[in-house]
Amino acid sequence: MRDVLDELLSVWRAGDTAGLASVVRTMKSAPRAPGAALVVSPDGTVAGSVSGGCVEAAVYELAREVVETGRPQLRRYGITDDDAFAVGLTCGGIIDIFAEPLSRATFPQLGAVAEDIAAHRPTAVATVISHPDVEWVGRRLVVGEASAAGSLGSTRADDAVADDVRGLLAAGRTAVLTYGPDGQRQGEGMEVFVASHAPRPRMIVFGAIDFAAALTRQGALLGYRVTVCDARPVFATPTRFPAADEVVVDWPDRYLAGQQASGAIDARTVICVLTHDPKFDVPVLAVALRLPRIGYVGAMGSRQTHLDRLDRLREVGLTDSETRRLSSPIGLDLGARTPEETAVSIVAEIIARRWGGGGRPLAEVDTRIHHDASEIAAVIGVDSAIDVR
């Protein structure tokens, strides 16, 4: 929903009704992830995408239909469905689409959700997409870290779902939860789609050099909130790093320790140390590699620089298990030479680390392109009631 939020708000604020179609579940090689959305405005204009083009026309008609009838629908498109295959999901994937009419009446909390997203406050929208009682379908609960607004249909269901949603929100994950009709955890019959809108993950780049400028552009492209930090004010200027969200003049280790103390570092944060100067990178790596939760720590330098850096890190007390968390030399082996190519190799390694990719050409890999739900569930620590495909 985040990608089409501006269009939704425009219709919502005007007091009109839009058709919102969201990907709630994917199987096999689906082109878009859960949470991808398409919105049809009252004048027929479209924003967003649910399939990269495969079934957009059919979903467009579905979105218009739910506005006309006022009834949400859950519909599956995929190669196992003859009708859906006829409209063109030729990638071999399967997607479940939930389409609903969206207005001030059906989603009074949308304005507050938009404010939370703009302020980087974690918020999640839990919507009933399947239930034995059709009156429950489309009901929603908006869940924050310490608040909940709206109702799914009963206090029992609200309490159970809100508790589970906060777990997903902490991990920044979007998923489908399954319960009994009244929120029973061991039951079946009710499915709830949870769209988590956690703050953007952070990329912290230490070293205000030309490679950092290229990396900030790549980080921004991938949706990271990018910070560049360097102790040298002549180099650490916003003008040199226009793609960065912030440029900080501070000693790297002091800045990182302060960010950790303030709770601004989480398991999605990636740290890239590009200074390759021992007086900067050894102290900041000593902090980074001891963080209890971190998504990625990489450091630039030649292989000889890497070996020298390891010796220095051991001298300041880091253990072998701590230094093994370091990706150095940073990036995948792409043969990169320019700052821009090097930045691509770095973010490629970050992506591979996040999703468990091996970094090999897909043409040489026999397994499925996207890793399955059980692997992702193992990483984020959810239980079997949660469908994270």
Automatic annotation (TrEMBL):
It comes from the Bacteria. Residues 12-78, 117-180 form the XdhC- CoxI domain. Pfam families: XdhC_C, XdhC_CoxI. Coiled coil: none annotated. Gene3D superfamilies: NAD(P)-binding Rossmann-like Domain. Residues 203-350 form the XdhC Rossmann domain. PANTHER family: ALDEHYDE OXIDOREDUCTASE MOLYBDENUM COFACTOR ASSEMBLY PROTEIN (PTHR30388), MOLYBDENUM COFACTOR INSERTION CHAPERONE PAOD (PTHR30388:SF4). This is XdhC/CoxI family protein. It comes from Mycolicibacterium hodleri.
